[in-house]
Amino acid sequence: MTKITNPKQRRDTSHHSLPQVLASRQNVTFHVGPSLSQSSVLHVFYSDMSNKSTTYFVKQQDIHIVNGQFTVELLSNSLYTITTTDRGAKGSYPDPPPLKPFPLPYQDNFDSYLVHGQPPKYLSDMTGSFEVYKNGSGGSQVLRQMVPSKAYGWCDNPYPVSILGDYHLFVNYTIQVDVLIESEGGCAAVGARVQATQACSNMNQVGYWLNVCTPGTWYVTERDTVIGAGKAALIATGKWITLTLQVDGSTVVASVSQEPLFKGTYSAYTNGYAAIGTKWNYAQFD
Fold it and tell me: What is the rounded CA–CA span in Å between residue 213 and residue 181?
């Protein structure tokens, strides 16, 4: 159980669409290939792309293909969609919900997701890939880090990390996650007050992190400085343990399966995301 608290559709290849954006008014002739030779009627939709326009995707008069070609008059600052399908229409959508803080307390055991490999709600992967995974233990589902070696990512973080929450409003809180490290020498981590004020900042190092690695080691970092480290026999390959990291004012507290590991006073970071992470290894979170 992951907790944070505070005190496939088939592709249709039988139709074709051609969007065009014009800078000046002109007549344009198109010569079509064999794939369009059996179509005689094309449907046209017009959008005015000028500033403050509200005219989008308006149906225009159909045009006809004659001798493998057709000509259409196009206005400037406009976008046209010319298509063989007759099912096009302007979409609609409701107003977005009003802005509100991230709901705390929050928890997820990932059993409600229907699709294996689905990304979970609210978590945002910066590096690596955290996906819903059926772990084979009684049919329950977990979140699993799926990338075992370094690859190209959105950000140049040295290790996989996924963030959650409200950067500005996450101040004093506790993140508690059950983790299982699948291989010897693998690691898993939870982070608090993780910083991401600049695009793709190194989130593995900026913030407070409780890291555990098999066999039996743990360490807590502030930025890239280790502020606490030790051994704990309960940190073992293939064994579920609970990581807890609490930040309250300048106090940072870490524990594994309710066994106290670290408590210290540090003030470098006062707010920031909650996060989970690994090294380049498989690990499960619940």
Answer: 8
